[in-house]
Design a protein that fits this description.
The protein has 366 residues and is mostly helical. It has 14 helices and four strands. A two-stranded antiparallel ribbon has the order 1-2.
Length: 366
């Protein structure tokens, strides 16, 4: 047996564990933590509070991050306020006034809107023409651009040449394109009608016919579809090939592969093209204005714009053209501002409905 004595403060038969902290009774009957072999207590020491230097360094890092953020977003926010929010608020204010640039604006309340919706004789025709371009021009351009992009993806030889040929018309300035098209479709001396006469066909009046003036501009819009075609082509080339292979193994034909593979993959691009196309069609101005003036034998739209724009028979008069006439020909800036507010509200409503109905940007399961 060992000769070491048994500790007096432990019951007999329980060995003392080395290294275990012991507590000693205090005067109040509670136990105080005993010191360890290193001189510390049995509890973990509290973390020291950060000193002043550490706090100053943290404040500098925070300030640097904020300065970086505002230096990056500041120019964009300034541009948004100066070139969008302020003009928008000013336009809304002027829409309730009678303003002609020569005298201070005079508050007239809702009289501009009352005249716009009840008395203006040409605004209804202009709105219908604009609606035609939105409903007909935008889908036709998208369908033709998608069709050409599909053909180019299947082209093995000289694909770069064909892409260039289809994209070049988009680089031509709109005014030059319209002037060239009006010359080509001139009913008397145009090459198109001359070619038709060689086959014994009497050519139509094209831009001089109220029933064919908008379809003639539709041909121009299809000819200048290179910008949309390039976007569709990039989206089609990005569709995973393994999905087409899996569809072929399941026995899917070309139509089913297009419906169940191609369309779901390019649907965000389709929505983007639809949104930008609708916005451009609501603001359709240059092509229709130049076609009206050139077909009427004029070279400008400054003199007599109220009679010149829309030729023939107001068939090419769009909402933005009539707004231009009211603002810069008749100098009715207040009434033109009211038309601009209505156009903005209509465009915003169409975009909201389109994005909500299609729902391509919503998360799955949301």
């Amino acid at each position: 047996m060992s000769d070491s004595p048994i500790p007096l403060n432990r019951p007999p038969g329980r060995a003392s564990r080395p290294g275990r902290a012991r507590t000693a009774p205090t005067s109040t009957g509670t136990k105080s933590p005993a010191t360890t072999s290193t001189g510390g207590t049995g509890t973990a020491p509290a973390r020291p509070a950060p000193d002043a230097a550490h706090r100053r360094a943290q404040r500098r890092r925070t300030l640097r991050a904020r300065l970086t953020f505002w230096s990056m977003t500041g120019p964009a926010l300034i541009g948004l306020v100066v070139f969008f929010l302020y003009p928008l608020c000013a336009n809304v204010f002027y829409s309730f006034t009678n303003y002609d640039l020569a005298s201070p604006p005079k508050w007239i309340g809702l009289r501009n809107y009352e005249y716009l919706f009840t008395q203006d004789p040409r605004v209804g025709k202009a709105a219908l023409n604009t609606l035609w371009f939105v409903v007909i021009l935008v889908p036709v351009r998208m369908a033709c651009s998608l069709g050409i992009a599909l053909l180019l993806t299947r082209r093995k030889h000289a694909s770069g040449l064909w892409r260039t040929l289809f994209y070049i018309p988009a680089l031509v300035p709109p005014v030059a394109s319209v002037v060239g098209f009006v010359f080509l479709f001139n009913p008397g001396a145009g090459p198109v009608n001359a070619l038709l006469r060689t086959f014994g066909i009497k050519g139509p009046l094209w831009f001089n016919d109220p029933s064919l003036s908008k379809p003639s501009l539709l041909l121009l819009g299809v000819w200048m579809m290179g910008d949309i075609m390039v976007i569709f082509l990039a989206a089609l080339l990005d569709v995973p090939k393994d999905q087409y292979e899996a569809a072929e193994l399941d026995g899917a034909g070309s139509a089913n592969k297009f419906r169940y593979v191609t369309l779901p993959n390019i649907s965000p691009v389709l929505l983007f093209s639809a949104v930008t196309g609708v916005i451009a069609a609501l603001q359709y101005f240059t092509e229709a204005a130049v076609a009206s003036s050139v077909a009427n034998g004029k070279t400008g739209i400054d003199a007599g714009a109220d009679q010149l724009l829309g030729y023939p028979n107001d068939s090419l008069l769009t909402f933005t053209q009539w707004m231009y006439v009211q603002g810069f020909s008749s100098f009715q800036l207040g009434y033109a501002a009211a038309m601009a507010v209505v156009l903005f509200v209509v465009a915003a409503a169409v975009m909201a409905i389109l994005l909500r109905r299609v729902g391509l940007f919503r998360q799955k399961g949301a």
